[in-house]
Design goal:
The complex is a heterodimer.
Chain A: E1 2-13, E2 16-27, E3 31-35, H1 42-50, E4 57-62, E5 65-66, H2 72-75, E6 80-83, H3 95-102, H4 113-119, H5 121-125, H6 136-148, E7 154-158, H7 166-181, E8 185-190, H8 193-199, E9 202-207, E10 210-216, H9 222-230
Parallel strand pairs in A: 3-8, 3-9, 6-7, 7-8
Antiparallel strand pairs in A: 1-2, 1-4, 4-5, 9-10
Chain B: H1 2-31, H2 38-54, H3 64-87, H4 93-113, E1 129-131, E2 137-139, H5 140-162, H6 164-174, H7 176-181, H8 186-211, H9 219-233, H10 238-258, H11 263-277
Antiparallel strand pairs in B: 1-2
The chains are: A alpha/beta, B mainly alpha.
């Protein structure tokens, strides 16, 4: 069953057009990786799904409901959660308070403080620390935990690995299968193609605001992906 | 002994300033709005107290049951109707709106109640005192005001750190876009913050009205004292606001001890000294988001 459907959206920043009649479909329980170089429109797509940007053309449908014009804070109760680019941890709140704010909408589901601490032992160790005092990797783990606290049906992960040390990236990716086991649908945006391919069941590659390649992760060859990624 | 007395009376006066300033501090902390209508809203609450005690014969302290929820509603409406619209324009817009509101309200009060001085009659409690020794005695009402001021600060602090809405307020203050991604409706959270802030100023206004004579323009000086308490304590910190109120109260009482005409002047001088030598205030917020 299609959980999320983005239908031919155009998205603009002022005069600049970031997405061109872009479509995306996500089945319940699936993991889709959206890959592409800098400026391909990946983060814009995520913001459009989360409700931070409104498309000038096209529509976004979630679980059969048109949410194109629904503000982002009203999409969270429906089950859409975004870990934003740059993580955006609340600096003056402790890690535990950050997680509790994540549960603001009180959606029922498998995720609570204990479940997040179990999935991310690093977060459990830092629970009393202020968001202000976290390293990049710690922030990313808290950001994912915080998004999970709303028990989303679809989790949007924007640039999980950006700016993190390789060993930290491994840790964070190690926690993803656990999230998917809970039946959470994951939409992953990555520049790091290797990591994306490891966890995703499908891949969609963007270039300058358009889809240039899509298919099952195991059916696409390196060469196909490389040429789509760089547009050669 | 006179000086000790001045410090004691100043501390108690500081409780009133802290009570007046708490809402100002909360609104700035959550929304970065400097509410210039804060003083006149305290005076509005004081006039409500006058109406309820004189026309409806409700005891002075019992008016709080009506005034505080009413002022909460006023705050909610101001935020939903005016400030949420201006806040998206950023910068000076909300300050100008609160300035305009202050002018309109002051003139409205003058139109309705005239420029005569009034006060809320609370009976003997307003003048009762506790004799400590032959030179020092503490007024029951100032002591009560101080205790209420401290309790309000504690209650706000507990609300902000322990409740779901309080956490949402702090999250929204740190990063309102990220808060929105958590499902927090910033406009409602702001309305709640302003509602609470104006409810506390309603409480403060009734105490002010019992303590002193006031007229519609009394809001100006009220705003200045509340503002000084917030700045002395440190912007965005409620404990700082309590400390700032007490420091301001002591400065005024000690000044008045030096010369009865110097009280307010000493308060301003301490305020200016803090601005010059410690502009972040005595207890600044630990994290500046």
């Amino acid at each position: 069953m299609t959980l999320l459907h983005v239908d031919a959206v155009d998205v603009h920043y002022g005069d600049f057009q970031a997405l061109f009649t872009l479509s995306l479909s996500l089945e319940e329980g699936q993991t889709l990786a959206v890959i592409g170089a800098n400026g391909a429109g990946k983060s814009t797509l995520m913001k459009t799904i989360a409700g931070l940007m409104v498309p000038s053309q096209g529509s976004v449908t979630f679980d059969g409901r048109d949410v194109t014009r629904l503000p982002s804070h009203r999409r969270v109760p429906l089950g859409i959660a975004l870990t934003p680019e740059g993580r955006r941890i609340f600096p003056s709140l402790t890690v535990e308070e950050n997680l509790m704010v994540g549960a603001h909408v009180k959606r029922k589901g498998p995720w609570n403080l204990e479940a997040v601490y179990e999935a991310f032992p690093l977060v459990a160790d830092r629970r009393d620390r202020l968001g202000f005092n976290l390293s990049g990797g710690e922030q990313q783990a808290v950001a994912i935990g915080r998004a999970l606290m709303s028990n989303p049906r679809v989790l949007l992960l924007d640039e999980v690995s950006l700016g993190l040390a390789p060993v930290v990236i491994e840790d964070i990716y190690a926690a993803l299968p656990r999230i998917m086991e809970q039946g959470t649908t994951v939409l992953l945006v990555e520049q790091d193609v290797n990591h994306a391919l490891k966890v995703a069941s499908r891949v969609q590659c963007l270039l300058e605001g358009r889809t240039v390649l899509e298919g099952p992760a195991d059916a696409l060859t390196r060469d196909q992906i490389a040429s789509a990624y760089f547009g050669i | 002994m006179e000086w000790l007395n001045a410090i004691l009376q100043g501390t108690l006066l500081g409780g009133l300033y802290a009570l007046l300033a708490a809402g100002l501090s909360l609104m700035f902390g959550v929304m970065r709005i400097v509410n210039l209508a804060h003083g006149v809203l305290a005076v509005l609450a004081a006039y409500l107290g006058v109406i309820l005690t004189t026309a409806f014969h409700i005891p002075a302290f019992a008016t709080l049951v009506i005034v505080v929820p009413l002022m909460f509603g006023v705050g909610w409406l101001i935020q939903m109707g005016l400030l949420n619209l201006s806040i998206v324009r950023g910068g000076l817009a909300p300050i100008l709106v609160t300035f305009g509101l202050a002018v309109v309200l002051t003139n409205l009060l003058q139109e309705v109640f005239t420029a005569d001085f009034r006060s809320i009659q609370a009976g003997s409690i307003a003048t009762d005192s506790i004799q400590i020794n032959d030179q020092i005695s503490i007024g029951v009402f100032p002591l009560l005001t101080f205790v209420v001021g401290v309790l309000v600060i504690i209650a706000l602090q507990v609300f902000l750190s322990r409740t779901r809405s309080g956490r949402a307020m702090r999250a929204s203050s740190d990063d309102k876009d990220a808060a929105q991604l958590m499902g927090i409706d910033n406009r409602r959270i702001y309305a709640l913050a302003t509602g609470i802030a104006i409810a506390t100023v309603g409480l403060a206004g009734v105490f002010l009205g019992i303590r002193t004579q006031f007229s519609p323009t009394y809001g100006d000086v009220t705003l200045i004292f509340a503002f000084e308490a917030v700045i002395i304590g440190g912007l965005g910190s409620l404990w700082g606001t309590l400390l700032g109120g007490v420091v301001l109260g002591i400065a005024q009482a000690v000044g008045a001890q030096v010369n009865p005409a110097y009280g307010v002047l000493f308060g301003h001088l301490v305020f200016l000294a803090i601005l010059a030598f410690r502009p972040t205030g005595l207890l600044p917020k630990a994290v500046n988001a």
